[in-house]
Design brief:
The strands form 2 sheets. Strands 5-6-7-8-9 form a 5-stranded antiparallel beta sheet. It folds into 3 domains: about 1-110, no CATH class; about 115-265, no CATH class; about 295-420, Aminopeptidase (3-Layer(aba) Sandwich), CATH 3.40.630. β7 (about 365-370) and β8 (about 375-380) form a beta hairpin. The radius of gyration is 29 Å and the shape is elongated. It has helices spanning about 40-55, 60-75, 85-95, 95-105, 115-120, 125-135, 140-150, 160-170, 175-180, 195-210, 210-225, 230-240, 255-265, 320, 340-350, 355-360, 400-415; strands spanning about 1-5, 10-15, 20-25, 35, 325-330, 330-335, 365-370, 375-380, 390-395. It is of the alpha+beta class. It contains 17 helices and 9 strands.
């Protein structure tokens, strides 16, 4: 054991193991230790705090930590830190051989190693790391690609998303596809993704259902955008929550589309139940003239309303609200609850439904969605006076005749729209 002391008090204890070092915090008085190997920022902060509390020069403490770490590394035949290595890099590098190798390439210190990466980064060699990560799929090209997946990004950023995505795809992809995924272009991920080992296993199960071609495409896309891994994790969670009630038709091949077809089937929670002040109309908004006639013109975005946030509640008249979840043959109705619902609908239907949120939030119109086999296929805009303004399908196409007449007759019977507002050709 190799202790790092501050003013004669042991703060950090280093234990030599095979090709790596275990890092522990020494609990004062009782002398017990807590393993913090996977949190190198923790012992570094503990030494800084102890130095400040005992009025010891931090440079002196850092020098003592370097001496103890190099002695422990020599005993373990582990990575050896440089004299100028930050404390976080010193503890992380001696604990995880592959992490030490990334520091040799100019990588910035990593404060915490996630549980799903510990076995890979803690392996004694690249060969062992490949086996720890991918098992029998760890061919020579896969191991070479793993190096690329771990290589620091511009600015020395160590981003483990390449490893995470590879771990997700490994059970589904053949070795050559896995190697291509691991060596694909990637960017630093933005924001927390909240991934632990249980989420990793869930993602593996869900992604396996997508098939190898779709999985490779979606996982690659997740690496190419800063919010990609977060969106991927959200999507697999939505798919898990939906279970057998997920999308029934053929799944799309893009990450955003996959996210939206699952998320659109889940109920949204408004930021609060009260009217959102941002949803009120602007002070001098002129009234627009509405023309009766072709209801199937491309959706035109309403103008003149203040912006709303993604979680702004969208109110609906009782007759419209009562439609939510109602089934009509092979169709079912759905009513958006928050502004972000309309944004997703617009992406799913390739139109500007997302821009209708301000007028809906202000009570100037209501939007009704119609799904077929759990996929959004139509949308209607209705005024507070029950006048039908627009009725369109995907990409503003005219709805199918049987469905169009069936839906309009049903909504008239329910008192949602006024029959007099429906053009004769509808």
């Amino acid at each position: 054991m190799f202790d790092v002391e501050v003013a004669g008090h042991p703060i950090v204890r280093l234990d030599a193991m095979r090709r790596r070092v275990r890092v522990q915090l020494v609990i004062p008085v009782v002398g017990r230790c807590v393993d913090v190997t996977a949190q190198p920022a923790t012992p570094a902060q503990a030494l800084r705090d102890a130095a400040a509390a005992r009025r010891v020069d931090l440079a002196e403490v850092a020098a003592a930590a370097y001496r103890s770490a190099t002695e422990a590394a020599a005993a373990a035949a582990a990575w050896t830190p440089r004299p100028d290595s930050p404390l976080v890099a010193t503890f992380g590098g001696v604990a995880f051989p592959l992490l030490g190798a990334l520091y040799d390439e100019g990588g910035s210190p990593l404060g915490e190693v996630p549980p799903w990466a510990e076995a890979t980064l803690g392996a004694a060699s690249l060969r062992e790391a490949g086996v720890a990560a991918f098992g029998s799929t760890s061919t020579r090209p896969v191991r070479a690609a793993l190096v690329e997946a771990l290589r620091p990004l511009s600015g020395g950023v160590i981003d483990l998303s390449g490893l995470l995505v590879g771990l997700i795809g490994a059970p589904t992809l053949e070795p050559d596809r896995l190697a291509a995924l691991l060596s694909s272009q990637r960017v630093a991920q933005r924001g927390p993704v909240g991934v632990d080992t249980s989420v990793l296993e869930l993602a593996r199960r869900i992604v396996a259902r997508w098939g190898a071609i779709r999985a490779e495409r979606v996982l690659r896309e997740a690496l190419e955008r800063a919010d990609g891994v977060t969106r991927l994790v959200d999507t697999v969670r939505y798919a898990d929550w939906l279970g057998d009630h997920g999308p029934a038709d053929r799944l799309p091949n893009g990450l955003d589309e996959l996210h939206d077809v699952h998320r659109a089937l889940l109920r949204s929670a408004p930021a609060n139940a009260d009217a959102d002040a941002e949803g009120r109309p602007a002070a001098a908004t002129p009234r627009r003239r509405r023309r009766r006639g072709n209801l199937h013109q491309p959706l035109a975005a309403p103008v003149g309303f203040a912006p709303v946030t993604a979680t702004t509640a969208l109110p609906a008249p009782p007759a419209v609200e009562g439609l939510d979840g109602v089934t009509l043959g092979e169709l079912d109705f759905v009513v958006p609850r928050v502004a972000d619902d309309l944004s997703r609908w617009g992406r799913l239907m390739s139109n500007c439904l997302g821009s209708f949120a301000p007028s809906v939030a202000a009570g100037r119109s209501s939007i009704i969605g119609v799904r077929r086999r759990n996929r959004l296929v139509y949308a209607l805009e209705v005024t507070p006076a029950r006048a039908l303004r627009q009725f369109c399908g995907r990409a503003n196409r005219i709805p199918d005749d049987p469905h169009r007449h069936q839906i309009l007759e049903f909504l008239v019977e329910r008192g949602v729209i006024d029959a007099a507002s429906i053009p004769r050709d509808a």
